[in-house]
Amino acid sequence: MQIEAARPGLRSWAMMVGTEGKLVARDTAGLIVPLGLPMLIMVMNGLGADGEGVPAFNGLPPLDAYVVPLTLVMMIAVIGVVNMPSFLAAYRKTGVLRRLAVTPAHPIQVLVAQVVVSMIQAICGLIMALVLARAAFDVSMPRNILGAIGVFLLISVAMYALGMLVAAIAPTTNSAVAIGLVLFFALLALGGGFGGRDALPDALATVGEYLPYGAGVEALSATWMGVAPDALHLGVLAGTTLLAGALAAKLFRWT
Amino acid sequence: MAVLEVDGLRKQYDDTVVVDDVSFDVAQGEIFGILGPNGAGKTTTVECLEGLRVPDAGHVRVLGLDPHRERAKLRQVLGVQLQKGMLPEKLRVREALALYRSFYRDGADIDRLLDDLRLTEKRNTAFEDLSGGQAQRLAIALALVGKPRIAILDELTTGLDPRAREDTWELIEQIRATGVTVLLVTHFMAEAQRLCDRIAILDRGKVVALDTPGGLIAAAGAQQRVRFRTSESFDTAVLERLGEVSEVRAERGEMVVFGTGDLLRVVSTELANHGIAATETRVEHATLDDAFLAFTGRAMDAHENV
């Protein structure tokens, strides 16, 4: 009998995504971060902001042009860099990936399913946070809405690529969370997550602008103001995706 | 025809050689056992067959495939039950089987499989809520869901109660009856003796013996024992001079006669000829435990037991 190599088809991929989705829905505590946190951050940042437009932001209030994009990037960074790797690390730790490694399913199938399900949660969290921002603080929608969607997706893949790298190098579940958090806070601090990059020394502020977090905030902010995002900012995001993704693929261990 | 070929397999981790020049072939439709204490290199050996580890030296083929380089082909025809290797906690039994079934081109009927493994009642139970035995049965079901031509089962009945163990053994025999070749990794003697056509005894990374269970017992020179009691003592020389008898010993008020051949009959006849009345006479045949002891110089039970 001839033996043919066969990888699972589309139905199997869909089933894996559906299964991951069910698992996520059953883990109620796990939903707090992607769904609750964005709203919380939005409220924290929205309170105390006034709605006055400023010329520096093309006539938009700082809340709309800067704080909201910052919040969205913060949210996808938490989910991508801290949340998702902790799930993957747990899968490796408990042997879920190892068990899959002896089936025709490539464990890549799990990674993709994880990212898809995580993205769905993140988008739900984002929509809820934006609706809240709109209702409570009268935040405007991006002037370049398609651009905003595109930039947000680019930021997302960059953050997930970093998350994959964290999952690849972390030996245990706890260390995945620790490494993810350190990376997240470093990016956040340099990217202006704590009171704006202006408060940082010039050199650090410049570095921060060209790290994924700062670049993401700048690019997303541009779409809110309706101006073209800086190509360099987009380049940083694309570069991060490629570099971190390639490193993660090289370093990832299934067992 | 050999469906599994292992020739001169060697694997070391750092400075420790865990598998040292291991060779064996497994024929189509055979139940082949790898028996040995923990640390003997059993799991590493099968991991090389599963393509999870790359041998440092030697030749390994599964259905003619190189397990590492041709893993995409191998995965379709090889069912594996890992000693470790789990499912997400919240995943339910039937969902797990349906998901795993979707990986294979051809597969088993899930509900039938659930039934065969007595998991039908537990089909909507989350993995984290299964008992040890139920989780073990699910692991076996997952190994079989792709209708494999070869199944590698590692520590098949560990954690099962006697009834579940017996059921599982019957299931393995049914699977073999459908033409599936089974490689069984175990440190449980009764399981190996009950199921395996042939057994390789592994000790400290080497194959120390390879034969049928009966052949191993015979080759180990393990002897039968006839035990009996007598109301008064007698001269044991009457038994010792029999050709079949190698030794006569008194143990806790019992006489134990070691020997070969039709031991029970010749001993009984000789006792009767001398007018010695024996009671509670019974014969103990050599088991795989005796053979294991003979080949490795150690009792398996001294290491651990199930």
From TrEMBL, chain A:
A GO cellular-component term linked to this record: ATP-binding cassette (ABC) transporter complex
Protein localization: Membrane
InterPro entries: ABC-2_transporter (IPR052902), ABC2_TM (IPR013525), ABC2_TM_bact-type (IPR047817), ABC_2_transport (IPR000412)
Domain ABC transmembrane type-2, first and last residues per copy: 29-255
Alphabetic keyword roster: Antibiotic resistance, Membrane, Transmembrane, Transmembrane helix
Membrane topology annotation: Multi-pass membrane protein
Protein name: ABC-2 type transport system permease protein
TrEMBL record, chain B:
GO cellular component terms listed in the entry, alphabetical order: plasma membrane
Gene Ontology BP term (one): response to antibiotic
InterPro entries: AAA+_ATPase, ABC_transporter-like_ATP-bd, ABC_transporter-like_CS, ABC_transporter_ATP-binding, P-loop_NTPase
PANTHER family: ABC TRANSPORTER ATP-BINDING PROTEIN (PTHR42711:SF16)
CDD domains in UniProt: ABC_DR_subfamily_A
Location(s) in or outside the cell: Cell membrane
Keywords from the named record: Antibiotic resistance, ATP-binding, Cell membrane, Membrane, Nucleotide-binding, Translocase, Transport
Lineage: Bacteria, Bacillati, Actinomycetota, Actinomycetes, Pseudonocardiales
Membrane topology type: Peripheral membrane protein
Species of origin: Tamaricihabitans halophyticus
Stated name of the protein: ABC-2 type transport system ATP-binding protein
